[in-house]
Each structure stands twice: as structure tokens, then as C-alpha cells.
Design a protein that fits this description.
This protein has about 210 residues and is mostly beta strands. It has one domain. It has 5 helices and 10 strands, in the order H-H-H-E-H-E-E-E-E-E-E-E-E-E-H. Strand 5 and strand 6 form a beta hairpin. The longest helix is centred in the first third of the chain and has 7 residues. The protein is elongated and about 55 Å long.
Length: about 210
Amino acid sequence: MALSWSGARPAGAVLIAMGLLVGGCSSNAIPGMSSLSSVFGSSESQSQQTAQTGQSGPGTSAESVNFSCPPVRVRMGAATLRVAANSGDPSPANLRYQVSIDETARQCSRVGSNVVMRMGVQGRVIVGPQGGPGRIDVPLRVAVVHEGVNPRPIVSELYRLHVSVPQGQTNQTFTHIENNLTFPMPPGAEIDSYVVYVGFDQLAGRARR
């Protein structure tokens, strides 16, 4: 299963010129929104949490019941989505909007032979000089990957979020919570090598524009 992720566009000029634009990932709570930490627990508890089974499947051993919930990481080069009014002009003055990821959180449970993850992403849309109020389509990809010498995708999902920017507003925050990200429980301690990557799928975004 191939993952669809595009490379990042140069961001330096945009960030310097506009100042307000936010890129990358932050553990800080988003102003005006309840932090995901208040819903999923603190960042520290998330990094140390141990998932437990909701119901054991046939042959489930005691050793396989408890496991570490895979961490969520923002994929390099996919933390920011920038959309220009004219795709041939990437200058700051031609920017319609920029979308960034600010916070992530997750919880896991074991259900039979599967791991069921509840995963949340908070982000922000900032309107550029060529942007305005209205609905913005945000292509968010979530991929569970077995890391190693040869990384192997386990699950890859594309979520098309719709964020509405009200009249008179220059930015808008949003939250996406996926309650049923499911993948097979791997044998032994393999799950310790699993990572959940989140980011904006810019190829999918361009396909819709």
C-alpha cells in the first residue's frame, strides 16, 4: 500500500513576510479551544500510557494484553498546507490560506485481535492576502507505519476536513477526532516499532482544486 505524501514547499519567505503564519507542530494548547490534552490526558501520560484490552480474543495471552500505544508524529514536510490563488506564484502576497497542525493526542485499546486507536488532531487555518471567509477543504492523512530498515505501511487513511472561516475572521481553529482507527495487533513486541504519522496530503489537496 503506497502512501501519498508530497514534499513541502519552501516556507521561509512566507513566514517572514506574513509573521502570523504558523508552521510545524506545537504541544501548546490552541487559544479559544479546549486542549486535546484535556480530552485524552496530558502529553506526559500519553507518552507513557499502556493500552489495555477491551475484550480478549481466543488465545490471547496475558503478556499480549498490555502494550504501549504507538506515538503520533507529524510527518516531516507535511505539517503545513499552503494554498495560493495562483499556483504559479508562490509569493506571500498570492497566498489564500495556510493550515497547520498544533497538537495531537491518542488512546488505544485492544479489541479481540485488533488495536483500536482514538486519535485527535487540532490545527489552525490562517487567511492570507488573497483569502477570505468561506469553507476550506483540508486533506489530512493518517498512516500507521511499522518503522525499521524497510518501513511498512499498515493503515493509511485520508480525511477531507471542511473548515469554515467566518466573515471578518483572519484565522480559524479546528479539531478532528477519529474514534476507530483500527489495525491488527502484531505479534510479540512489534507494536513498539509502530508510529502513527499525521500530515496534510498536498497531492490530494491539489487534485480537488
